Amino acid sequence: MITNKKAYINSFEAVSCAGLDSQQLFASICEKKDCISIDNSYVQDRSVAIGKIDSKLPFNDLLTKTVNKVLTNSNLENYNNTLLIIGSSVGGMNETEKVFFKDSSYENIDYKKHPIDAIAYHLKQDFTFYDDISFSTACTSSANALGYAKEVINKGIYKNVLVVGVDALSYTTVCGFSALSVLSSKPCTPFEKNREGMNVAEAIAVLLIQDEKEDSKSVEICGAGYSSDGHHMTQPHPEGLGAAKAMQNAINDAKINKEKISYINAHGTGTMANDSSELNAISLVFDTSKPYVSSTKSFTGHTLGAAGAIEAVIACMSLQKQIIPPSKNIKDVEREDISFTNEPLKQEVSYVLSNSFAFGGNNTSILLGLSNDN
Fold this sequence. Notes:
Strand order of the largest sheet: 5-4-6-7-1-8-15-14-9-10-12
CATH topology: Peroxisomal Thiolase, Chain A, domain 1
Number of helices: 10
Strand content: 15-25%
CATH superfamily: Thiolase/Chalcone synthase
Radius of gyration: 19 Å
Number of domains: 1
Order of helices and strands: EHEEHEHHEHEHEEHEHEHHEEEEE
Oligomer: single chain
Largest sheet: 11 strands, mixed
């Protein structure tokens, strides 16, 4: 039974190639910094652009540090009544690769450190959560984790939920996308007419979601919308029908007028098929209103299972700072009926819609807004 509980994001942090914390991330976006690097070590005989975190800490240590920072800044004395939700498409694959490439054998691989729930397994060594659940739905993984967090808080099942969206760079994913011929050899240019493809990237994004707001900066998860169009194993529906349904479902769930949405943080990967489909979907849903649209993957790269969470962090900061973040490198837009922005816009931001779309036609949209509760 649905209660009147609301889901508030009270604390968050993010680490990516665009910054080692959320403030650096948003500053990099607004200052339009070059964050994507060129690499020739992942794909044989080819240079590709990737989003690699610039840190001396091992990835798992950085993950623990980021989670600890969010929890330390929270109002929680302990985490015994907190649900941990992981969203990841890679899990511990990068750890498995390290062992395999070192030993040229699978014999020394720890099976507990490989699957999707390897992230939860790692975090439970340092934190005592009530329970944990892991989502692995490709590029909607952490967006679905956020939607689930909203649901269990709305229903009064949990008061505190920690969502962790995380994916590390791995040879398996980079080479896999290379095999699909969708990687770019330069920083990606989503919605640019002459775009080349996507940039695989790594990131960590952590959000503490609670049933009571902490202060005026708390961001409410107002709506979550899903669809599954099942059009193709890797290609979205060309007319964007599934994506449009997910967006409309999120708006319906939030019970708001779509005219109030100021900004859409698009999935915007930079591939020909995804961008075209998503623009069709946006045009279908927002046929009268024209919210601003940008893809921050032009700064962070495509962080796969972490994308929904890191883009929710960006959406939170857009609402808190009342700034619409820009895209980067758009010179010749594919469509003139969409309100793209290449520059940060300081203006009123009421609601932000964040899109995440995945293989198999799995579509998720999360609608966020600043709480105006007393």
